[in-house]
Amino acid sequence: MHKRRYTLLALGLTALLLSSCAQGKTATAIPDGDDAASYVTAKFAEKLKVLGEDFTGNEARKSSLEKFGRIDDKKSDQLIEAVQVGRPPARLAKNHSKRDSNEYLDFFHPAGSPIEYGLLGPVYSSLAPTPWVSMPYDGGTLNACFWEGYQDVCKMLDAVSAAVDKGAAAKQAKSLPDGSVELLAEIPLGVFLDKRVIVFPERLLTDVNEEMKQEPVASKIVLDGLGKLRSIEMTGLIKGDGHEVEVRMNYRILEPPTENDLPKIPDPSQVTNLPDEAAVADFYDRMGEIQDR
Asked: Pairing mode, if any, of strands 229-240 and 104-109?
């Protein structure tokens, strides 16, 4: 991992995810009348704190995230698959464009290794003379949300938490027949952007006015009967002043992975080593230039 990949996370994220280790309880029916709003807000706050357990442990986990963002005709459409296996965990994050099969970046950290590997899709082939690069792994002391496989969902939860704290986001909390809990909320687009759930180029954000930032992004969180995250979705289409902002995010926990879900450590002949901070910084600078085209 490299520090440059984590500068987009809000400081409130760590506080959210480390704030509680309490077990979740299945939601009950929502009260009627004036008590409903305060009940739903309290239920959101309770469940969001419990979710901290999901991202501070080392249990095996596999997930997928469909991530779409658009401002007018500029868009990004990605599928991010993440695997965590073992104690200490080996981790794999596969970030693939859904619009161009040649645009992908996979990051693999073998358990306990001082090295992290990156597999370059053809779009990024100019970054190194080999299919893989390696770099020093400096994420061992960081919260799990600083890992690429969890970054996005942590930012989604952080946005929901920030909106709920303002008292106007929570809409509904209900139990489902299988014992799971569904939480519905509306997150102002401004909060979604401030928390950088999707990172848009600054030149595009100048077209998003203050009225648009007050419009809602619909959010749904589903927890299993133990209070653990099962899925989180965010969708919104906001129009104003001749511009459009569209966001669609769908995060799912999949069946637990095995070691077979991880790649093998690449042969050294297929790896370009980035030995120090300067080489890694140059790599990410050049990657940013490709992504900004």
From this structure: unpaired
Q: What is the CA radius of gyration of the chain?
A: 20
Contact status, residue 173 vs residue 183, Cβ threshold 8 Å: yes
Residue pLDDT, tens place only, 152-205? 888 998 898 888 877 767 778 788 888 888 888 899 999 999 999 999 988 899
List, for residues 38-82, the tens digit of each pLDDT value: 667 777 777 777 676 666 667 788 999 999 999 999 999 999 999
Q: From CA 17, how far away is CA 2, in angstroms rounded?
A: 21
The whole model's pTM is what?
0.82
Residue ranges in 98-178 assigned as alpha helix (H): 148-165
Determine how many CB atoms are found less than 10 A away from the CB of residue 100. 12
Residue 259, judged by CB atoms within 10 A of its CB (0-12, 13-18, 19+), counts as exposed
